[in-house]
Write a structure and sequence with these properties.
Among the domains are: about 180 residues, no CATH class; about 120 residues, Immunoglobulin-like, CATH 2.60.40. It is built from 10 helices and 20 strands. The protein has an 8-stranded parallel β-sheet with strand order 2-6-7-8-9-10-11-12, with helices on one face. A hairpin with a 3-residue loop joins strand 14 and strand 15.
Length: about 475
């Protein structure tokens, strides 16, 4: 039996350390204190923490009155404890319990009335926590700002980010926000590695049915401003779109996909189990979304994974070759072929003209002789070219599942002057590499910017001269 409580730490705005941020909030494990004598190692060595570890190791629920209701418990998973090795995978910080929205399935309006103050985390509380973690040798992989309130209601959110960066300069920092704020006045130039912006739709009429009191225009501006942030402090931006019955139409999803591509943000479509959930898209047919938004990633709420059956499983095949090195008119690459449930196949790659003055006008793809619709120049590929970022293609195809002994991908491109280039890529369909999730292909946060610089240089060195 497993639970992320033996890998993560959640801190409420008032410094309380609960079991976790779901049903586990009913179990108090301690408090962060600004007293210099307080230390995190004593907290992790407490009787309650030992009880959690011993119970999970014995395949027993630590808190029988709460664990059966918790979507974060994994009864069938293997116990994996990193806290004992002084490594915290995710430190979740709740900056504030306040929020300007009134989402119907959110517990915030009740919690803000019942929970003791302070409802805004004091900067010194975070400083005391992080100093103690550092002084006692705890590594932290990711600091995530998220809780029962909106993090950006904190009057000095940037100050929290700054303190964390000073004490743990190499730790990735992630913000999860509803985005109904001015990006620049809230972030103030501080370095966030990743920002998740929750925006369930692009039309005010559908958006406000769940995100009540919110303005979709403000959220889309926040998203655009975050994505446009250049320089060393530029974050990786993810658009989190929960699919409900009122925002799951093909046109609205397609429009969201197009906006995400224009701003170079990842569109993450979430299948939920809550009230108002989409009836069109479920854990059984989620790959149908890729026919509408091929560059999106698909995920679900934690409850889907409780008993170990991951509905977001995909696989990727090995290619014999990835790009042509002897091109004249244009360079062509095929990065990977993804196999999704319901016989949806996705081809991802890039095409780049040899001469910027002679741009591409078309990209045509065939898989085993079947033509595939393509997103032409729709995906930014910083790892291919720093001059012409819009060089990526994504091609979805619904198949009959009969691939034979080999998959052959043929790519043909044409330029404005009429020149053309062709490339053929082949693979053995049975050499699949399993992915835990359709989202698992994303670069780990801590390595994102370093990998970005490395690949850009490597591709530039390997690109043939024309």
């Amino acid at each position: 039996m497993d639970c992320r409580i033996v890998r993560d730490l959640y801190v409420k705005a008032d410094g309380e350390l609960p079991c976790d941020d779901d049903v586990g909030e009913n179990v108090n494990l301690g408090y962060v204190s600004q007293d210099p004598s307080w230390n995190i190692h004593a907290h992790f060595s407490s009787e309650k923490q030992r009880h959690i570890r011993n119970a999970l190791l014995s395949d027993e629920e630590p808190w029988p009155e709460y664990c059966p209701k918790c979507p974060l418990l994994r009864p069938n998973d293997i116990f994996r404890d990193t806290i004992s090795d002084r490594r915290i995978e995710t430190l979740q910080i709740e900056p504030s319990i306040a929020c300007g929205l009134r989402c119907p399935c959110c517990s915030q309006p009740v919690q803000v009335k019942l929970r003791p103050k302070p409802h805004i985390m004091e900067l010194e509380t975070l400083r005391s926590l992080l100093r103690s973690c550092r002084d006692h040798g705890y590594a932290i992989e990711t600091i995530e700002y998220c809780g029962q309130g909106e993090p950006l209601t904190h009057p000095n959110f940037a100050g929290l980010v700054r303190i964390a960066r000073e004490i743990y300069p190499e730790t990735a920092q992630r913000l999860i926000t509803n985005g109904n704020y001015d990006y620049h006045s809230k972030i103030r130039g501080e370095l966030l590695d990743q920002i998740y912006v929750s925006c369930d739709g692009v039309e005010q009429a559908s958006y406000e049915k769940y995100r009540r009191r919110g303005k979709v225009s403000a959220v889309l501006k926040f998203l655009a401003d975050a994505a446009a942030h250049n320089g060393d402090n530029a974050p990786e931006v993810t658009w989190k779109y929960i699919l409900f019955e009122h925002n799951d139409s093909d046109p609205e999803i397609a429009k969201s996909h197009q906006i995400a591509l224009e701003h170079d943000v990842l569109l993450l479509l979430i299948i939920t189990q809550t009230k108002y959930k989409s009836a069109r898209f479920t854990a059984e047919n989620w790959s149908d979304l890729l026919m509408i938004a091929p560059s999106a990633r698909i995920g679900g709420v934690p409850g889907f994974l409780r008993y170990g059956a991951n509905p977001w499983n995909s696989s990727v095949v090995h290619l014999h070759n990835h790009f042509r090195s002897d091109f004249v008119a244009a360079g062509i690459g095929c990065d990977r072929i993804l196999f999704h449930p319901n016989e949806v196949l996705l081809i991802e790659g890039w095409a780049l003209p040899a001469d910027k003055a002679d741009p591409l006008t078309s990209v045509e793809i065939a898989v085993n002789g079947t033509q595939v619709p393509v997103c032409l120049n729709a995906v930014r590929r910083w790892d291919v070219s720093t001059d012409d970022l819009w060089s990526g293609y994504v091609a979805p195809l619904r198949t009959d599942g009969n691939y034979g002994t080999e998959i052959v991908v043929e790519v043909q491109v044409r330029t404005e002057s009429g020149r053309s280039e062709e490339a053929k890529f082949s693979t053995e369909p049975y050499r699949h590499v399993h992915l835990d999730s359709a989202m698992a292909v994303r670069t780990p946060l801590a390595d994102f910017h370093r990998l970005k610089r490395f690949i850009t240089k490597a591709r530039a060195m390997c690109r043939p001269r024309v």
